[in-house]
Amino acid sequence: MPRSDPFKPAARVANQPQDVWSIINEAAAASPVQPIVNMGQGFFGYNPPQFVLNAAKEALDKVECNQYSPTKGRPRLKKAIAKAYSPFFGRELDPEKEVTITTGANEGMLSAFMGFLESGDEVIVFEPFFDQYVSNIEMPGGKVVYVPMHPPARGASETTSAGDWTVDIKAFEAAITPRTRMVVINTPHNPIGKVFSRDELLAIGNLCVEHNIIILSDEVYDKLYYVPFTRIATLSPEINRLTLTVGSGGKLFYATGWRVGWLIGQEHLIKYVSAAHTRICYSSVSPLQEATAIGFEEAEGHNFWEESKKEMKGKMDRFNAIWDELGLPYSDPEGGYFVLVNMAKVKLPEDYVFPPHVASRPRDFKLAWFLIVELGVAAIPPTEFFTPQNAHIVEDWLRFAVCKDDEILERAHERLRGLKKYIQ
Ligand SMILES: Cc1ncc(COP(=O)(O)O)c(C=O)c1O
Q1: Where are the domains of the chain?
Q2: Could you identify which of 218, 323, 379, 424 might form a hypothetical disulfide with 186, taking C-beta atoms 3.0 to 4.6 angstroms apart as the criterion?
Q3: Is a pLDDT exceeding 90 seen at residue 20?
Q4: Where is the signal peptide (predicted)?
Q5: Ligand 1 center to residue 109 CA distance, Å?
Q6: Whose CA is nearest to atom 2 of ligand 1?
Q7: What are residue 400's DSSP bridge partners?
Q8: Phi, psi angles (nearest 5°) of residue 219
Q9: 238 C-beta neighbours (distance < 10 Å), count
Q10: H or E element: which one contains 139?
């Protein structure tokens, strides 16, 4: 008998609520205030540094850069990454066996899950989480087990440090079952801006050793830390044996559209990530791998890492001055380029009409909608990074991305002053 509905989608893509990026981007496009000041999605408002751009342009003139790269990545890029990261890992990384190149960090993580999960295997994810983790885990049949992180109790009344968000190690331990195969950690963290402390990482890492759990450490913001930064892979040989560290050329070189990422780990882990990656997309974009390699080779000479961190911290501090002016508390980031601001003091007009797809969401969606339509500033509602049962933890917060031109940050200030009359 023929199928009654040939277009019935697979469960993994069916019935997904409209994702936050579409809601916010559509609202931004429809806002009466144009052009919108878009501090929502974490893409850069400016170009990669000139030496990296030049490398990309020149790569297109090389015959071999327009053809397939080896599935595990271009040898030049693997070598450049191994050289750049060996000092941070405290040992010589083998570029052939311990580094694999992927199509952005995102596909790298999908490959890791594809490489290790069987149907029904569990993966522990801390909330809030980068939303892609969930579908990446579920596609190979994995089950996500959530452990919430908590903002400081004072977070609604005073500015606190992003480091004050707590990870409940006991709750993590309680979430471990015989089916737990992997845990995902993210430091510096999106959206909190927390840099996990050495003690927190050690506690998580030791439990993973005890239970033989693979650690996927998402460190895509690893050059943007404003307090000491620890890599979990470096804490002990036993933890290192279980750890895959994730990186992103897009985040490091302001080129999120290039889709160049990588995983670093010991051979017994990396070989299966590469095997999955080969089947998912065969190999990744050649000219931009070449340009990323040159970016790494020349970064120190341009003092790029120092400058990039200094520049981002400057943007962060300049932007956050508006919250001090308005008297709205925020969670002062320890790393990355996102800031969470607490809007509990903002009273939305009672008779304000929200469209149904916003009205049915938690308060942060309404706050985000209001800011877009009334003030012309786009931010992201962070309940999207929580499960529905824990969404209440962040329904008064909004996430702003500061990786934008200074002029845009200045315009954001002017517009956000319009919030004054709603603050109580
Ligand atoms: C925490 C985190 N991990 C991974 C990614 C994805 O990185 P890529 O663009 O290299 O796939 C992002 C992008 O926003 C992110 O915030």
Answers
A1: 20-46+305-422, 51-302
A2: 218
A3: no
A4: none
A5: 10
A6: 130
A7: 339
A8: -120, 40
A9: 13
A10: none
Torsional class of 282: left (φ above 0), alpha (ψ -120 to 50), beta (otherwise): left
In this structure, the residue with its CA closest to atom 16 of ligand 1 is: 190
Ligand 1 binding pocket mutation candidate from 113, 136, 251, 338 (most atoms within 8 A of CB): 251
Rounded to whole angstroms, what are the CA distances from 81 to 140, 248, 282? 28, 11, 20
Place of tokens 């919430």: 148
- What CATH class is the domain 51-302? alpha beta
Take residue 168 and report the two structure tokens written for it: 């409940």
d(C-alpha 333, C-alpha 343), whole Å: 17
User: pLDDT tens for residues 288-318?
Assistant: 999 999 999 999 999 999 999 999 999 999 9
Q: Distance between alpha carbon 394 and the CA centroid of its chain, in Å? A: 17
CA-CA distance, 318 to 320, in Å (whole number)?
Answer: 6
104: left (phi over 0), alpha (psi -120 to 50) or beta: left
| Residues near ligand 1 (Cβ within 6 A) | 42, 104-106, 130, 186, 190, 218, 220, 248, 250, 256, 261
Phi/psi of residue 378, nearest 5 degrees = -100, 130
User: Using 50, 70 and 90 to split pLDDT, how confident is the model at 23?
Assistant: confident
**What is the 128 CA–ligand 1 centroid distance (Å)?**
14
What distance in angstroms lies between residue 420's CA and the mean position of ligand 1's atoms?
34
Tell me whether residue 341 is exposed, middle or buried, using C-beta atoms within 10 angstroms of its C-beta: 0 to 12, 13 to 18, 19 or more: buried
pTM above 0.85, yes or no: yes
pLDDT single digits (tens) 332-345:
999 999 999 999 99
How many Å lie between the centroid of ligand 1 and the Cα of residue 309? Answer: 18
| Distance in Å, CA 347 to ligand 1 centroid | 33
Whole-number Å distance, alpha carbon 105 to ligand 1 midpoint, is: 6
CB-CB contact of 367 with 27 (8 Å): no
CATH 3.40.190.10, applies to 20-46+305-422: no
On the question of a cis peptide bond just before residue 35, with omega within 30 degrees of 0, the verdict is yes
334 φ, ψ (degrees, to nearest 5): -95, -10
- What are the start-end ranges of the E strands in 53-212? 99-102, 122-127, 143-150, 160-161, 166-167, 180-186
